[in-house]
């Protein structure tokens, strides 16, 4: 995974969920560990699209339960 993209996604997660960067890692579950609701996750996807130009369809978004899965998806869909 590109360090730049991983760092950008970490910054988006930290900013949108109002967390310190050391409060989560790639294994962290959005819902179980961070108590993120579906709207929070949609807002993360919108921020990724605005910042990195990667659109995450709702069907795909539902499958991205951890920070690491989210980052991997973004990396794999970055041009």
From TrEMBL:
<dbReference type="Pfam" id="PF00550">
    <property type="entry name" value="PP-binding"/>
</dbReference>
<dbReference type="InterPro" id="IPR009081">
    <property type="entry name" value="PP-bd_ACP"/>
</dbReference>
<dbReference type="InterPro" id="IPR036736">
    <property type="entry name" value="ACP-like_sf"/>
</dbReference>
<keyword id="KW-0597">Phosphoprotein</keyword>
<keyword id="KW-0596">Phosphopantetheine</keyword>
<protein>
    <submittedName>
        <fullName>Acyl carrier protein</fullName>
    </submittedName>
</protein>
<dbReference type="InterPro" id="IPR003231">
    <property type="entry name" value="ACP"/>
</dbReference>
<feature type="domain" description="Carrier">
    <location>
        <begin position="3"/>
        <end position="78"/>
    </location>
</feature>
């Amino acid at each position: 995974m590109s360090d730049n993209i991983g760092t950008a996604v970490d910054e988006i997660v930290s900013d949108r969920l109002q967390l310190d960067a050391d409060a989560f890692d790639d294994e962290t579950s959005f819902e179980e560990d961070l108590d993120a609701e579906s709207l929070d996750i949609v807002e993360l996807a919108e921020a990724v699209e605005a910042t990195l130009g990667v659109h995450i369809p709702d069907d795909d978004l539902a499958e991205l339960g951890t920070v690491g899965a989210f980052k991997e998806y973004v990396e794999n869909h970055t041009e």
